[in-house]
Every structure is written in structure tokens, then in C-alpha cells.
Amino acid sequence: MAPSKQQIRKDEWERRLHDVQVSKTDLNRLVMDYLVIEGFKTAAEEFGKEAGLASPVDLDSIESRMNIREALQRGDVGEAITRVNDLNPEILDTNPALYFCLQQQKLIEFIRQGRISEALEFAQEELAPRGEENPEFLAELEKTMALLAFESSPSAPPSISELLSPAQRMRTAGAVNAAILESLSQGKEAKLVALLKLLCWGESMLDERAEFPKLDINE
């Protein structure tokens, strides 16, 4: 028989939470980190002035990241690559997986636009040689080329049809954004998001031993 869980009353739980001291400076840094990572340049500028807190990165780089993300979200991979190289050419030079990801997205956009002859030529000249060097790249290329077989058929497997979804563009944009942040010696994920994940993990561990008021993340 499993041991009974410890019961923690709401008033006791709230008292323990209130006893935890967090400095306003640390909270301000969390907010600034979130604004920078998520790309809210104007908000970061205003918050920095109000809190007397300097941004951990050049705020102009935030605008550059957002321009790159917006280009990818509308399917303009060529502009995104140009902007990444303008920002720091070493990002793609030293990250073949990221460069392949962008080239794959460009191939997807050719197929989306019905530019089949260009898609085939681009795949053969730009992606096939990279696929020969890396089995993972080859698998992704084959999956992308399968779009041609199914076209817009509703019978296409989800793993194939999802390549044409907005989520695919978002994944590509997220990978590029993370690489740019890493090049700036900045975290890839907002610390506030990481703390929420840690909170959820901590609650799941504590839930095995105690009954306590849980935080509703959805609220």
C-alpha cells in the first residue's frame, strides 16, 4: 500500500512562498532577458530606461533578428540568408546543419509555389551533394521531395504535409534565431520560460509525496 501524501494547506503554502525573497533587480533582469530573447526591441528599450538596466546585447541586433524571422515566416528564405550573413557570416559558415535547414526551407517554398523545375534543379545542385555527406540530411531531402509525389493530396502522411504548414516556417525561424543568439553569447531560450519548465517539473516531483495548491500555468 502506497504511503499517504502529506497535506499542505493553502495558507501554509502561501506563507512559505511569501518567505522566499527575490530581489527586484533579479526580477527586472528576468523581464529584460525575456524581452530581448523574444525580440521586443521597443519594450526592451523602454523597460531598460525605467528599470535602470542595460540590455545584455546590442538592441539593434534584436531588430535584425526580427527582420530575419519575419522573412522566414513569409517564405523569403533568400532575404533571410542575406540578412544572417550581413549580421555575422560565420553563423552559417560554421553551422552546416542550420544552412541545410535553410536550403531545405527554400526547396519547400519552391514546391509550395509550384516552381517544380526550379525545385528539382535546386535539390540536385544544392541539397543532394550535402545529403551524400550526411544521412540525416539525405533523409530530410527525401522527405521534402516526397511533397512532389503527393502534391496537395489530403492522403499525404502528416510528416510530409506538415512541411507546408506555417509551423515548419516557425521551426526554421526558431533554429536561426537560436543560432544568432548563441553567436551573441546569449541564451537560446528566455530564462523565464526555463523557470516555468523547472516549476512544472518541481511540482510533478512534489506531487508524488504531497497534496498542495498547484499553479495553473494556463492562467
The run of helices and strands is: EHHHHHHHHHHHHE
Beta-strand percentage range: under 5%
Largest sheet: 2 strands, parallel
Major sheet strand order: 1-2
Account of the 3D structure:
The protein has 219 residues and is mainly alpha-helical. The protein has two domains: 23-57, no CATH class; 60-208, no CATH class. Helix content is 71%, strand content 2%. It is built from twelve helices and two strands, in the order βααααααααααααβ. It has helices spanning 10-19, 24-38, 41-51, 59-73, 77-87, 90-93, 96-112, 116-133, 135-150, 158-161, 166-183, 191-206, and strands at residues 6-7, 210-211. The chain has a two-stranded parallel sheet with strand order 1-2. Helix 4 runs antiparallel to helix 5 (77-87), helix 7 runs antiparallel to helix 11 (166-183) and helix 8 (116-133) packs antiparallel against helix 9. It is globular, with a radius of gyration of 23 Å. The relative contact order is 0.12.
